[in-house]
Amino acid sequence: MFAKIKTVESFIVSIPRDTPYLGALGPGERVTERGYLIRQGNGTIYPTTDRSVLIKITADDGTVGWGETYGIVAPTAVTSIIDDVLGPVIVGRDPRDPMVIQEDLYDLMRVRGCFGGFYVDAIAGVDIAVWDLYGKLLGQPLVKLLGGQRRATIPAYVSGLPGATLEDRLAVARGFQARGFDAFKYAAVVSFDGIVQEMRVLREGLGPDARLMVDLHWKFTAQEAIQLIEQLMPYRPYFVEAPCQPEDMEGQAHVGANIKVPLALGEEWRTVYEYRPRMERRAMSIVQPEIGHTGVSQFMQIARMANAFHMKVIPHASIGIGIFQAASLHAAAALPNCPMHEYQHSVFDRNLQYVQTSMRCAAGAFTLPEGPGLGIEPADSLWQFLCPKT
Ligand code: MG
Questions:
Q1: If you average pLDDT over every residue of the chain, what do you get?
Q2: Residues 184, 213: contact at Cβ < 8 Å?
């Protein structure tokens, strides 16, 4: 008889950082008593640590699957949903049914109106753990369970150029360029010298072959965004990201139809139901699903649907210890329409010391982790950062 799910556990880990995500505090920014900072540029909240939620699913034969989702804000909201609802529901289920389990868990809360947010994040983390367990029980890497493997390495773009000055940020990019990276994205929220000026300096400093991207962090109206992107055109951006607020579907589509550079959207959407109306409006030509929010099951549906709309998939990556990043690389390796993957270097590289995996990012590309399932699990050294669920 095939192994069944026996226990589901959730954990919060919080790894201190010397410099917060996206760089040092900007003008007028402070840390709250709960350890959060609010970026003035876009009003978005971040913890000062690398905080994440891990999910451990153990089968009745002792095999363990690991998942991860976001713990950036109020991580106990996610662990409560897992501990109180999702975990007990899937005890006894067959881990060979990951997509069925994901659909069943999503259905549970339809009548409660939980179509996104913390509830779907919690499902995503559980879903990743079920897929990992399934792969381990079969002795196969996740990519082989997703329709087949196209590649063993995924081109990476360097995301975020932390530095107090524009010269410092250019120096960070040049350092990566010297190590074989050719694609760079900066964050408008910390472009203290101006968004156009930053791209001009990067283009002049990195040369004609570098691929440059900017994350506009939902800061602009559609017309403002069109005007701004026009000013970026002399510096040939590879894509521009998230110009308008996500609620402004018409604005997104208006920008997409009126600029001459690919528009990338999607890191904050969690299901095909959020992607579909934007795809139908051709609001973007690149989608950026975040597997820590979608899980493997939804990620693959979103990515395959994007392919049907002739859109590219350039997955998002942010704060985590590497488990959902590994899942994202497996998914990316199975896709025909994924030219590269975000590389959140200040998080990814630092946290590799707390996981056991062969996954790396070097010379411009990620290496897919080896081994069955995701090919990654927490190292003993991670557990010093375990937090109480309070
Ligand atoms: Mg972004």
A1: 96
A2: yes
Q: Could you tell me if 265 and 128 lie in one domain?
A: no
Contact between 121 and 69 (Cβ < 8 Å): yes
149 and 242 housed in the same domain: yes
DSSP label of 368:
P
Q: Are residues 123 and 166 in the same domain?
A: no
300 vs 291: CA distance, rounded Å:
9
pLDDT at 189: 84
Measured in Å, residue 354 CA sits from the centre of ligand 1 at 25
Structure tokens that stand for 293 in this block: 């929010």
Domain count, the chain: 2
How far does residue 42's CA lie from ligand 1's centre (Å)?
Answer: 11
Provide the pLDDT for residue 161.
93
What is the spatial distance between Cα 258 and Cα 244, in angstroms, rounded to a whole number?
14
State the distance from the centre of ligand 1 to the C-alpha of 54, rounded, in angstroms.
Answer: 23
- Using the mean position of ligand 1's atoms as its centre, give its distance from the Cα of residue 155 in Å: 18
* pLDDT over 80 at 129, yes or no: yes
- The predicted model scores a pTM of 0.97
Retrieve residue 330's tokens: 């497996």
State in Å: Cα 22 to ligand 1 middle: 11
Q: What is the pLDDT of residue 28?
A: 84
Ion ligand 1 neighbours, Cβ < 5 Å: 215, 267
Per-residue model confidence as pLDDT tens digits over 236-260: 999 999 999 999 999 999 999 999 9
Residues 132-137: what's their mean pLDDT? 98
Q: What is the pLDDT of residue 5?
A: 98
Q: How far is the CA of 1 from the centre of ligand 1 (A)?
A: 45
Ligand 1 centroid, distance to 147 Cα (angstroms): 28
Residues 189 and 274 in one domain: yes
**Pair 58, 185 in one domain:** no
Domain that holds residue 371: 145-378
